[in-house]
C-alpha cells in the first residue's frame, strides 16, 4: 500500500474510477499529472504501485486483451479480463511479483461491474472500492453515501466528497485527481 | 480419410433451440462387450460435445486435448470457452501434423456441437487437414452423401429440436445398412435449453432413441412413395 489513492464506484449503467496524479520515486515527486487509469479495450483499469511495475504490467495486460480480441473476434468481458489479470498476478506472485493494486471496471451486456484486485492476486467483485492509503479515509464515506442505481452526478458527488476528505485529513497532499467513467458507449474523462 | 468414410454414419443437425449429434456404432462382433462404453459421442464441456469418425485411438488423444483446452480456458477466464474457439484450437493442432515430415496426421473427423452466449447453438465439422466450417446439418461416415442429400432437402430454418430429432432419425434410417436400427447400435446426444433457460447437455435414453427410430422407419406401403419423391 503506497501513498496513493484510487477510488471506484458502480452506478446504474456505468462505473466511475478516480486516481491521484502522483508519480513518486522514493520520497521524491517525479510528477503530479500522471494518468493511472488505463483504457483497455472498452474497459478501464486503475493501477497503483511503483511506476515501473504499474506501467509494465498494464501494458502487458492491455496488449493481451487486444490480442485476444483479434484472435477470437469477440471482445473480452470484464469478468474474463479480471480473471485473466488475476491469473497473471497469481502466476507472477511466486516468481517475480508485480507490486500492482488494481481496480478493473467495465460495462457488459449484463450491466456494470467493478473488480478489486491486489498484488497478492485476490480478486473481488464489488460496488465500491479503494486502494492505497487513500482507502483508509474514503471507504467509510463510500459506505455512507453509495446506493444502488446511482446517476452519474450522484457518483461524481461521492468521489468529490472522498477527495475533500483526503485533502482535510491525509497528511500527504495528493494532487490532480483524474476521474473517468466507463459506460456501454465507451470511456470518458470527467472534470472534477 | 479412408477410415473416416468407413466409420459408422454420424449426423449432426442444428435446430433453433438446440443441436443434435447422432452416430451409428459399428459392432464388429457380438462377443464385444460395449454396453457401457461410448464409441461415438463424447462430452467436452458443460454445453459442448462431439461425434467422432476415424481412427479411435487418434480421436481419444484429440478428445483429451479438447477437454483440457476447454477447462484451461475456464480456468483463465472464469467463463466457458466459446465453441468456435475450441474448434479453432484443435484444428490448429491437427494442422501442425500436416506440415512436418515423419509424423502422420490425426485420422479423425469431428462433428462438434455446442452452445455459447456469443453465437448460440452451433455445429462444426473438422477434418484431418485442420479445416473446419460451421453447418446447419452435416454427415460423416458411411453413406454421408445420401445423408447430406436428405438433410439438404428437409432441413428448414427455424426448426425446433423435436423436428430436428425426427430429421436426424430419418437420415439415419436411410443411411444405415440395417432394416431396423435400435438403440443398441445408436448414440444420440443433444444440447438444449431447459424451460428455465438453462443450457444443458444430455444423451438420449434407449427408450427415447427406439421411439424416434420406430417413428422414422418407413411404414408399410409408404416405402415406394418416399423413395420416388427423393
From TrEMBL, chain A:
One of its GO terms (biological process) is proteasomal protein catabolic process. InterPro entries: Ntn_hydrolases_N, Proteasome_beta2, Proteasome_bsu_CS, Proteasome_sua/b, Proteasome_suB-type. One of its GO terms (cellular component) is nucleus. It comes from the Eukaryota. Keywords: Cytoplasm, Nucleus, Proteasome. It holds the Pfam family Proteasome. It is found in: Cytoplasm; Nucleus. The keyword Nucleus applies. The keyword Oxidoreductase does not apply. Its main location: cytoplasm. Component of the proteasome, a multicatalytic proteinase complex which is characterized by its ability to cleave peptides with Arg, Phe, Tyr, Leu, and Glu adjacent to the leaving group at neutral or slightly basic pH. The proteasome has an ATP-dependent proteolytic activity. Component of the proteasome complex. Belongs to the peptidase T1B family. This is Proteasome subunit beta. The lineage of its organism: Eukaryota, Sar, Alveolata, Dinophyceae, Suessiales.
Automatic annotation (TrEMBL), chain B:
It is found in: Cytoplasm; Nucleus. Component of the proteasome, a multicatalytic proteinase complex which is characterized by its ability to cleave peptides with Arg, Phe, Tyr, Leu, and Glu adjacent to the leaving group at neutral or slightly basic pH. The proteasome has an ATP-dependent proteolytic activity. It comes from Effrenium voratum. It comes from the Eukaryota. SUPFAM superfamilies: N-terminal nucleophile aminohydrolases (Ntn hydrolases) (SSF56235). InterPro entries: Ntn_hydrolases_N (IPR029055), Proteasome_alpha (IPR050115), Proteasome_alpha-type (IPR023332), Proteasome_bsu_CS (IPR016050), Proteasome_sua/b (IPR001353). Its main location: cytoplasm. GO terms for cellular component: cytoplasm; nucleus; proteasome core complex, alpha-subunit complex. Keywords: Cytoplasm, Nucleus, Proteasome. Component of the proteasome complex. GO terms for biological process: proteolysis involved in protein catabolic process. Belongs to the peptidase T1B family. Belongs to the peptidase T1A family. This is Proteasome subunit beta.
Amino acid at each position: 500500500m503506497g501513498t496513493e489513492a484510487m477510488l471506484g464506484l458502480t452506478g446504474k449503467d456505468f462505473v466511475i474510477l478516480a486516481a491521484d496524479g502522483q508519480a513518486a520515486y522514493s520520497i521524491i515527486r517525479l510528477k503530479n499529472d500522471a494518468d493511472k487509469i488505463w483504457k483497455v479495450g472498452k474497459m478501464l483499469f486503475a493501477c497503483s504501485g511503483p511506476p515501473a511495475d504499474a506501467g509494465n504490467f498494464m501494458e502487458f495486460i492491455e496488449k493481451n486483451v487486444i490480442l485476444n480480441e483479434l484472435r477470437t473476434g469477440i471482445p473480452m468481458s470484464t469478468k474474463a479480463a479480471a480473471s485473466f489479470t488475476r491469473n497473471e498476478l497469481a502466476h507472477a506472485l511466486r516468481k517475480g511479483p508485480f507490486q500492482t493494486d488494481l481496480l478493473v471496471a467495465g460495462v457488459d451486456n449484463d450491466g456494470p461491474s467493478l473488480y478489486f484486485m491486489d498484488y497478492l492476486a485476490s480478486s473481488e467483485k464489488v460496488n465500491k472500492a479503494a486502494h492505497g492509503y487513500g482507502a483508509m479515509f474514503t471507504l467509510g464515506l463510500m459506505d455512507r453515501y453509495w446506493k444502488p442505481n446511482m446517476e452519474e452526478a450522484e457518483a461524481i458527488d461521492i468521489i468529490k466528497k472522498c477527495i475533500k476528505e483526503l485533502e482535510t485529513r491525509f497528511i500527504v497532499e495528493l494532487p490532480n485527481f483524474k476521474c473517468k467513467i466507463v459506460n456501454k458507449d465507451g470511456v470518458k474523462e470527467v472534470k472534477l | 480419410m479412408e477410415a473416416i468414410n468407413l466409420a459408422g454414419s454420424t449426423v449432426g443437425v442444428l435446430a433453433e433451440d438446440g443441436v443434435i449429434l447422432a452416430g451409428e456404432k459399428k459392432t464388429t462382433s457380438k462377443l464385444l462387450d460395449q454396453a457401457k462404453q461410448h464409441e461415438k459421442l463424447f462430452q467436452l464441456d458443460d454445453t459442448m460435445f462431439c461425434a467422432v469418425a476415424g481412427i479411435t485411438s487418434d480421436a481419444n488423444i484429440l478428445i483429451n486435448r479438447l477437454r483440457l483446452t476447454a477447462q484451461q480456458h475456464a480456468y483463465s477466464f472464469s467463463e466457458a470457452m466459446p465453441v468456435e474457439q475450441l474448434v479453432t484450437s484443435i484444428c490448429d493442432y491437427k494442422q501442425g501434423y500436416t506440415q512436418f515430415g515423419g509424423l502422420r496426421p490425426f485420422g479423425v473427423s469431428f462433428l462438434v456441437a455446442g452452445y455459447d452466449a456469443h453465437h448460440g447453438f452451433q455445429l462444426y465439422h473438422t477434418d484431418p487437414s485442420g479445416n473446419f466450417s460451421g453447418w446447419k446439418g452435416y454427415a460423416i461416415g458411411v453413406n454421408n452423401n445420401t445423408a447430406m442429400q436428405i438433410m439438404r432437402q428437409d432441413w428448414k430454418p427455424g426448426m425446433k429440436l423435436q423436428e430436428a430429432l425426427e430429421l436426424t432419425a430419418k437420415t439415419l434410417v436411410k443411411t444405415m445398412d440395417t432394416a431396423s436400427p435400435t438403440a443398441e447400435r445408436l448414440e444420440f446426444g443433444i444440447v438444449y435449453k431447459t424451460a428455465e433457460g438453462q443450457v444443458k447437455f444430455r444423451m438420449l435414453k434407449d427408450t427415447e432413441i427406439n421411439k424416434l427410430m420406430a417413428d422414422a422407419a418407413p411404414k408399410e406401403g409408404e416405402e415406394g412413395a418416399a423413395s420416388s419423391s427423393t
